[in-house]
Amino acid sequence: MSSVLSPSNTSISLTRYLIEEQRAGRxxxxxxxxIEVVARACKTISIAVGKGALGGVLGDAGTxxxxxxxxxxxxxxxxxxxxxxxxxxxxxxxxxxxxxxxxEMDTSHPIPDVYPRGNYLLLxxxxxxxxxxDVNISVGTIFSVLRAPEGVxxxxxxxxxxxxxxxxxxxxTTYGPSTMLVLTIGNGTHAFTLDREVGSFVLTTRGxxxxxxxxxxxxxxxxxxxxxPPMQAYVTDLLAGKEGPRGKDFNMRWVxxxxxxxxxxxxxxxxxxxxxxxxxxxxxxxxRLMYEANPMSFLVEQAGGAASTGRQRLLEVQPTGLHxxxxxxxxxxxxxxxxxxxxxxxxxxxx
Length: 351
Ligand code: AHG
Ligand code: MN
Ligand code: MN
What we know:
Layout: H1 14-23, H2 29-51, E1 62-63, E2 66-67, H3 78-92, E3 97-102, E4 120-128, E5 139-147, E6 169-175, E7 179-184, E8 189-195, E9 200-205, E10 216-218, H4 229-239, E11 251-252, H5 258-268, E12 271-274, E13 287-288, H6 289-302, E14 306-308, E15 325-326, E16 328-331, H7 333-350
Parallel strand pairs: 3-4, 10-11, 10-12
Antiparallel strand pairs: 1-2, 4-5, 5-6, 6-7, 7-8, 8-9, 12-16, 13-15, 14-16
One manganese (II) ion is lined by residues 125, 128, 258, 292.
């Protein structure tokens, strides 16, 4: 009897993709398990997000009128807290981690003594874009994996403070019209779509490629008056369109969920920026280096794009704290280089 399945119409699940990467020697069984566990936790978060008001999970965490706050000084949503707990619980027992760190926790989180420990460190933003939850716009989870320093089995905060170039894996899931997982282990950036009936992630784009040039930018324009001069000059020239020095018209998109904005850029190009502004200058920026900027920069570079603070390659920034913030420019390579040039030219004039 001939089979109706041929290699061209069998789908590649995340499990199969990871097993094949393991056979090729690019990941070991512990990292494979780690990625599978994170993906499974994200499926659970996806179900909670998808239930919306029916799940009783919308709104602020804490007591009515007194939302609980995280270390960032931001009000926590119920789904921020729930997503954090789902990721912590899922990753505690597998034996692949020496520690965890999260946007929602002040300090790193030890692996409970009852479980074995491994060599990896996991950092995550359990729910990114949470200001969008209550209005039913895409949110996501961002994660980054580092190796624990030699000999460390119970990681402390300082063990996590490694530049983004040290990441061995990074990814995000986006909970949108479909749930997608976008992943890199340093061998390209690949997108998987959740088959909700089967309950498994299926490879839908192998080797995402960001076009070098773009006509689309993403920034919160309401901060314009607070920006520094090079950012003012860069955006002024974008807005001048065909008649200006850039010689082309630009379109603008801003979802205010980094996952959704970065996903658009990985899919069709663009530049995403959250520059320094007068409101966030004291903290060094708005977005967090360890679990927002670094994993997204790794994914973007692996897809042929670029990521910078405006003055330095993002992945080379030496972190000074778990919740350190940085300015971010990432996406289409030529456009990121143009934004960086405005910063360098301004700095040179000042010198
Ligand atoms: P989080 O919900 O994890 O705190 O992150 C929100 C971030 C990011 O997703 C987004 O790009 C940015 O904050 C939105 O900023 P604005 O509120 O200035 O639009
Ligand atoms: Mn975030
Ligand atoms: Mn978050």
